[in-house]
Write a structure and sequence with these properties.
The protein has 427 residues and is an alpha+beta fold. It contains 13 helices and 19 strands. Helices cover 36% and strands 19% of the residues. Strand 4 and strand 5 form a beta hairpin.
């Protein structure tokens, strides 16, 4: 649980980054139409939530910074009995003022009037310059009257790079639920089932454990479907002798998990599958062991590419000098993506990878990232030994950078060949 005092500390950090004589505006997410008059379940904008913990729509956060003081103002939907009858209770101004550690709270309808009152001779305006929200159209027009306009998102996203103790605990909770989901699908019999059956089991486990949303659409890819990286159709029958790549994570209390495991339909890996699986697994384990403060992600990427290329040469998938193959990017055919990404409130946390001088940001204590090497060999790739064709493997864990090294937050999820086969045998 994140305390209100932590949200206030985050807002105080924003104030320190703002230029003197500034206003900064952040809008909540808008309700999104699904079709005609139905809407998708509401989910707050990640940056707005990060600074407020406020979950309702039609809200605005205003920072006022002058030479003498700083003030935060929250605008919320006014309580209206008719709207609440149809769409649920609202917190309203009075309750919001009691709960949130902001200086003032007003109804959203009063934003324009209050904003103009504080406008005065302020020189700088900060807002989400590239976001697609209706309220921002007005901001773009207003910005022209300021001496300078700035994008507020980079300031917030840099802060999100470092997770607090409370955030790490929420990520742990999300991963613990995801672990149950992955183990659930390992346990059930696969014969006669379809990919969507496993997806249903995963999402059932999420919701039964109070994770009301998945962090992204689950990938359940059997056989050659695993060689489509963002495969989400999940409609194929599970066939004995094939592997199933399952990339699934939940969102719990706004914090994500992102886990991939690759398991055999019939509960046992074939020899060819074992050879590829062990190459990916050993690569992942070696990369995780390298993680510690001041190491760069580019170094992890290069190391993963070198290890996978060396292994593919040994298995006869590639041939030639390892350095030359990497230079010509021959390995990209089978390992086309990065070694991992930041993770937090968003499954792909939009925290920066480079600083203002375009220098790569090294790993530091409190960062959370995924490590996910993979190999993808299409069933029609005749340049590869036949026994490997149609196999796609990815193994992904969520890693916390610590003071002296790292912690694999998802290490409890079965991963070795022996662990996976034992879990599949439980049924």
């Amino acid at each position: 649980m994140i305390l209100e005092s932590e949200y206030k500390k985050r807002r105080d950090k924003v104030f320190k980054k703002l230029a003197k004589s500034s206003l900064a505006v952040l809008f909540s997410a808008e309700a999104v139409t699904r079709s005609h008059d139905t809407e998708h379940p509401y989910r707050q904008d990640s940056n707005f939530y990060y600074l407020t913990g406020f979950k309702e729509d039609n809200a605005i956060l205003l920072f006022v910074k002058s030479s003498t003081k700083c003030k935060t103002i929250l605008f919320v939907q006014k309580k209206e009995k008719t709207l609440e009858l149809w769409n649920g209770k609202r917190l309203g101004e009075k309750e919001a003022k009691k709960r949130f550690l902001v200086d003032e709270v007003y109804a959203t309808k009063d934003f324009k009037k209050i904003f103009l009152e504080y406008r005065g001779k302020k020189k700088n305006l900060y807002y989400e310059q590239n976001a697609k929200k209706s309220g921002l159209k007005k901001m773009i027009k207003i910005a022209k009257s300021f001496q300078a306009e700035h994008d507020i998102l980079p300031l917030i996203q840099k802060m999100r790079l470092y997770k607090s103790a409370a955030e790490i605990e929420l990520i742990r909770e999300s991963i613990a639920i995801t672990a149950k989901a992955h183990h659930r699908v390992m346990n059930i019999a696969k014969k006669g089932r379809y990919e969507y059956h496993l997806q249903a089991e995963i999402e059932h486990e999420f919701k039964m454990n109070a994770a009301y949303s998945d962090a992204y659409t689950s990938i359940v890819a059997c056989g050659n479907n695993a060689n489509t990286l963002h495969y989400i159709e999940n409609s194929k029958a599970l066939e004995s002798g094939e592997l199933i790549l399952i990339d699934a994570g939940c969102e719990h209390n706004y914090y994500a998990s992102d886990i991939t495991r690759t398991i055999p339909v019939n509960g046992a890996f074939s020899e060819a599958q074992k050879e590829l699986y062990m190459l990916v697994l050993e690569t992942q384990l070696q990369i995780i062991r390298m993680i510690k403060p001041f190491v760069k992600r580019s170094h992890l990427q290069e190391s993963a590419e070198r290890l996978l290329t060396k292994g593919m040469v040994e298995l006869g998938i590639l041939s030639g000098d390892i350095k030359e193959l990497i230079k010509k990017q021959k390995h990209k055919k089978y390992y086309p993506h990065g070694i991992g990404h930041w993770m937090g409130i968003d499954v792909h946390d939009p925290a920066p990878y480079r600083d203002a001088k375009n220098q790569e940001i090294p790993l530091q204590k409190g960062m959370v990232l995924t490590i996910e090497p993979g190999l993808y060999i299409d069933t029609n790739d005749k340049s590869v030994p036949k026994k490997y064709r149609g196999i796609g493997i990815r193994i992904e864990d969520n890693i916390l950078v610590t003071k002296d090294g790292c912690e694999n937050l998802s290490s409890a999820i079965a991963k070795s060949i022996e662990e996976v086969e034992a879990m599949c045998a439980k049924d």
